[in-house]
């Protein structure tokens, strides 16, 4: 059983309910579940063409989506980070002293084998146990 579990949630995929169920099953008594979404910033060359209001508005909409995803789960704390998803999840896990990360995966395409998916990066760099859900 784990005392501090981070569930990496992608707002584009529907894995959150099953991931939270797994987290609850693995949580020790008195343990904590953190639902984390990493918001990847717009790349520099594209950002030059966007108003700051547009960029910040997109971030706030993502925050609202995350809050909505965990609204019916009072035992889950939502956390939004800015940065590359694989790196943000592992860095946050290390800073928080997490002992488990739950992350979803999909059937990898060719680019995932060459570049690595978020789940693969988390597995390679996590400072703790990782449970990968398909």
From TrEMBL:
What Pfam families would the database entry show?
Usp
Transmembrane ranges, per UniProt, are none
Ranges where the UspA domain occurs? 1-134
The family database entries (CDD domains) matched by this protein are listed as:
USP-like (cd00293)
Q: Which InterPro entries match?
A: Rossmann-like_a/b/a_fold, Universal_stress_UspA, UspA
Question: Hey, which family's this protein in?
Answer: Belongs to the universal stress protein A family.
Question: Per its record, how is this protein called by name?
Answer: Universal stress protein G
Organism of derivation: Roseovarius mucosus
**Gene behind this protein:** uspG
């Amino acid at each position: 059983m784990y005392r501090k579990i981070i569930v990496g949630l992608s707002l584009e995929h529907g894995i959150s309910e099953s991931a939270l169920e797994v987290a609850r099953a693995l949580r020790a008594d008195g343990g904590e579940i953190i639902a984390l979404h990493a918001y990847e910033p717009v790349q520099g060359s594209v950002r030059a063409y966007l108003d700051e209001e547009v960029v910040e508005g997109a971030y706030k909409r993502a925050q609202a989506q995350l809050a909505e995803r965990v609204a019916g789960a009072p035992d889950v704390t939502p956390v939004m980070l800015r940065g590359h998803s694989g790196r943000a999840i592992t860095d946050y896990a290390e800073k928080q002293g997490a002992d488990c990360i739950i992350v979803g995966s999909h059937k990898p395409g060719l680019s995932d084998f060459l570049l690595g998916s978020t789940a693969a990066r988390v597995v390679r760099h996590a400072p703790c146990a990782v449970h990968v859900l398909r």
